[in-house]
Structures are given as C-alpha cells and as structure tokens.
Specification:
single chain; about 575 residues; mainly alpha; Methane Monooxygenase Hydroxylase, Chain G, domain 1; elongated
Length: about 575
C-alpha cells in the first residue's frame, strides 16, 4: 500500500506538471549549478530520483544533453528525492494547535483521500482528475506508512529483531542492507520510508540508520544502470557518473563519520532515531556530497569515460534510434516532444529528396545521386515504421488530452512526409526512364517543368517550416499555393498534349512529363495536409475536420486567401500562360 501510494503520488504530480518540468532539462542545464537546481526541482515535483536519472540517460542518449551537463542534474536528483522523507516525518508532528493538527497525517491523509476521490470521480477536466489522483496517492502513502508502523511495532519485543538491527551498526553490513533493499524496490525514497516506519519501534539508533541511508543512495543506481543497457557510450557514462558519485560520496561520509566518532564521538550516536532524524541526515548527506562534487564534475566525467571507454571502430549510432528512445517514455510530454523532432527529421529528408529528384529530372542525371536518393528513401520508410511504433507504444501510457492529440497529429504528419518522399522517388524514376531512353524535354517543356517544380519546392519548404516552428503564417500560405499548383498541373498537361499532337515533343518524353506532373501535384496535396493540420490543431480543443476548415477559411478569410492566391498566381501561374 505504501509503495502504491508513492507511485500514485508521483504519477499524479508528473501529470499535473504536464511534462513541462522535464522539458526544461533540455535547455537550462548549461552549468553544473543550474543542473543541480533543476534536478532537485524536477525530482521533488515527480517524487522519484530514479525517474529523473532515467530521463537524463535518455536525453544524453538522444544527444540532447551533454554528459557534463547531465552531471549536475544527477546530483540535484539526489537532493530532490529527500523531500519525500520530510513529508513522511509529518506523522511525528505533536501539537495542540488546531492548524498543526490539521497538518498531522492522521488527520490530513483521510481528508486528502476523500477530496481526491471526489475530484477524480466528479471532474471532467483531466487536469483536475490529475490533482485528485495526487491527493489520493498522498492519502494512500500515509495509510501505508501507518500500516507498516502497526505491523513492525510488535517486533520491538522480539529479541531476534533487536539482535538483527544491532548488526546494522556495522557500517559495511548497514551499507549493504541499504543497497540491496533499495535496488530490489528501485526507489531510495520508498526504502527511506520503510526505515522511517521501522524507527517507530524505538530500536533503530543513529549508528544503525546512518550506514543504511548511505547504502540506499547506492542502491538507487540500479535503475539508470538498467536504463543504459543498449544505449550509447555517453548514456552508459551518465549511469557510471551516478554510480561513482554515490559510491564516492558514501565512502567519504563513512570515513568522516566513523573517524569523528572514534576520535571525538557523537553525543547522539547510540540514541534512537526518529523519522525527522532520518529525513535530516538523508538531506545533509546528499547536500554535502553535492557541494563537495560540484567543483569536481570534470573529475567525475573523466572517471566515467575511463570506466566506459571508446573502442576503435565504434560507429555512429543511428539518429532515428537516438531520437526515439523508449527511456523517455517515463515522461510522456518529453517523449512526444522528441517524436516531433523525429517527424521533423523525416520532413527534412523528404524535402532533400525532392530537390535531389528535381535536379535529376531537369539537370544532369547521375547514378550515384540516384543511389543516395534511394538510400534516403529507405531511411524515411524505416523512420516512419519506427515513429509509428514508438507513438503507438506511447499512446498506451497514461496521457493528458493534449498529449493524446499531439500523438494523433504526429501520426498523420509522419505519413504525409513519407508520401512526399515516395513521390520524390517516383520523379527520380521518371528521370531514370528518360536517361535510359535517351529522351529529353523540349526547351519549353523544360522551362514549364522548372516553374512548377519551383512552386512545389516552395510549398514543401512552407509545410516543413510550419510544422517545425508551428509557423501559422507559413501554414496559412500553403493552401492558396496548393490551389495554384493544381491549376498549373492541369494547364501544363493540356499544353504538353498539344505539343505532342503537333510533334514538338517525343512520345518517350511525354509520359515522364505527365507522370512527373501528377507526382508534383500529389506532393502539393500532402503539403496542404501538413499545413492545414498545423492550423487546425488546437492545444485546448483538439483538431477539427480539415475539409471543413478549408471551406470555413475561404468564407471567413476570403480576402486574405485571395491576396495570397494572386501573389502565387503572379509568381508562378502567369509564367506558364505565356
């Protein structure tokens, strides 16, 4: 019950934040100190240092964070996780003051649970439901704590229990116990909570608790280690930094504590420790080790690079595998953001293939260029499969409404960019057939094809820019230009058929010309879908029907639409009428 409550509380806080806290890790970790502060804030908010370090491993693997910048976040995560212990110490609160009694978990936990259930069941907005879930988690957390305390209280009378805890005063045994328990449940905050519950028996002394707490910090390293399996070298080094930081910090603190105890002695060493004492030492230990290692971040980085060495012949990691890292799914908002980057990469590759195909059609044909274009097309196809699989897995997570709509939008846009790459390859095949047959377009046909290719090139650029930067101005220019391209295609087909009838163009060149026009028009259609998707997507209300939007826009913004239509007509269509 205690572990479930902690999980529910952390999940609720994560959803309330909407992934915004994690996204700041990408841009605000330029120095170690900034990284420490952000790591502490993010971990305190989501109640899990393991989740934070897994996110950091994923970001380093995705090349979003550098290894040096990740070190500060890892240190800060150790500080942020101590907030849970301070929340749990509230159960020891003793006062006759009415307001302090309200803060006492025995009073607050049931009240929070009731309010949370009401909010979760009655609210329609997902954000309110998330707040309700957080309050339910808070209530269950303390209910579980009370249950653990009640369960261990009878053990205080058992000699075997006392003898067992007496062995924990040995620092080596205490550290090992803390390490293995935390590694088993993969949460230092939860294992600290269990220790706080055991302290209610009155037989846990400071000398027993100190090594266990330090061992718990080592045990939490298991999660990023598991997350780094199969990741890049730097991601593995990030996990290594976490291990080195916690082990070295523990060794230094143990050396200090036991040296001081043997020479001077702590007056409280053999006294019973309570929840507050455990929370305080947990915080002091993590703050002190962080302050000690902030100036030594470079040393930790070198140590990690020594542990995880580069091997000769190591190749570059596939950029698609880097961007679509499933480790980031612990934060759906962040995962959606990186899926968007992957779709944007697809768009850039599709645009490059388009311009390459046009160069082959109207310029010098080169077989090596064709080979590179086909390789890029294969990459785009694989990226589409990878992105769709990733987004479908992500859709199974517990998402906010906005995240669900974003996934739907990305799935559609991913398909549009893949189709653009397909049609670009078709244009390349038209050029290949002309090269094989030795045929060429007539001078006028080449000029006309160049004009419509320029128009399609502009609409591809507009669509990609509108998606990458959510550029509404660019998106609003796509539909008028798409209409011009539709009209140009029909006109150019008629003009080419007329040239063919008059014998001004060969049959071998006629079919590639018409087929290329059809593919250009379809590319423009897919660009229109991307642009309209950007315009119709509403973070608060979702997406509306695209055809409905186009018709509505033409009626409500007829003047603006017509102005852009005239601009593009003058720029492109009028040139082929001559």
């Amino acid at each position: 019950m205690f572990l479930y409550g902690m999980s529910l509380l952390g999940t609720g806080l994560e959803r309330v934040s909407g992934g915004r806290l994690e996204k700041t890790l990408e841009s605000l970790t330029s120095t170690v100190v900034k990284g420490v502060l952000l790591g502490a804030v993010v971990t305190a908010a989501i109640q899990s240092s393991s989740a934070t370090t897994v996110i950091v491993v994923g970001l380093v693997n995705a090349r979003v964070l550098k290894l040096r910048n990740a070190i500060g976040v890892i240190m800060g995560a150790n500080i942020g996780t101590t907030i849970t212990a301070h929340i749990l110490r509230l159960s020891d609160l003793q006062s006759d003051n009415f307001f302090l009694l309200l803060l006492k978990p025995a009073t607050l936990a049931p009240l929070a649970s009731i309010i949370g259930v009401v909010l979760f069941m009655a609210a329609k907005r997902s954000k309110i439901k998330d707040i309700g879930q957080t309050m339910i988690g808070f209530g269950i957390l303390f209910t579980g704590m009370f249950a653990m305390e009640a369960a261990v209280m009878p053990l205080s009378e058992q000699p075997a229990f006392r003898n067992l805890f007496a062995t924990f005063a040995n620092p080596i045994i205490g550290v090992l116990v803390g390490t293995f328990v935390t590694a088993a449940i993969q949460s230092s905050a939860a294992s600290i909570g269990i220790l706080q519950a055991l302290s209610s028996t009155g037989f846990v002394t400071y000398s027993m608790a100190f090594p266990i707490i330090m061992g718990q910090n080592i045990g939490t390293c298991i999660t990023p280690i598991l997350a780094s399996i199969g990741a890049s070298k730097n991601a593995k080094r990030t996990a290594a930094v976490h291990v080195c930081f916690n082990i070295l910090g523990t060794l230094i603190f143990i050396a200090f504590c036991y040296t001081y105890q043997s020479l001077v002695g702590f007056s409280f060493w053999e006294l019973p420790i309570d929840k507050g004492g455990i929370a305080n030492f947990h915080t002091i230990f993590n703050v002190c080790t962080t302050l000690l290692f902030i100036p030594l971040a470079g040393v930790l980085e070198k140590l990690a690079c020594t542990i995880v060495r580069d091997k000769k012949g190591d190749g570059e990691i596939d950029i698609t595998a880097i961007t679509l890292d499933e480790r980031l799914m612990v934060s759906p908002g962040l995962a959606v953001n990186h899926a968007r980057e992957a779709v944007a990469q697809m768009g850039m590759l599709a645009r490059n293939n388009y311009h390459t195909a046009v160069g082959l059609l109207l310029g010098t044909f080169d077989l090596k260029t064709v080979e590179r274009l086909n390789e890029t097309e294969d990459v785009v196809d694989k990226m589409e499969d990878r992105v769709e699989t990733y987004l479908l897995k992500l859709s199974e997570k517990k998402l906010t409404d906005n995240e669900s709509r974003s996934i739907s939008e990305l799935l559609h846009t991913c398909g549009e960019f893949e189709r653009i790459a397909d049609h670009s390859q078709n244009i390349c095949e038209c050029a290949q057939r002309m090269y094989d047959s030795g045929s060429k377009f007539s001078k006028r046909a080449t000029e006309e094809m160049g004009i419509i290719c320029d128009a399609v090139g502009e609409i591809v650029d507009l669509a990609l820019d509108s998606f990458q930067r959510v550029n509404l101005t660019a998106a609003g220019s796509v539909e008028p230009l798409e209409e011009i391209i539709d009209e140009m295609e029909e006109t150019l087909k008629d003009k080419h058929i007329e040239r063919l009838r008059k014998g001004k163009c060969t049959v071998d060149a006629a079919f590639p010309f018409v087929e290329a026009l059809s593919n250009l028009e379809r590319i423009a259609d897919h660009c229109s879908n991307v642009g309209v998707s950007v315009l119709t997507y509403d973070g608060a209300h979702g997406a509306i029907d695209r055809h409905e939007y186009v018709q509505k826009t033409r009626k409500e913004h007829a003047e603006q639409f017509q102005d852009k239509y005239i601009v593009y007509s003058t720029k492109y269509f009028n040139k082929i009428k001559k």
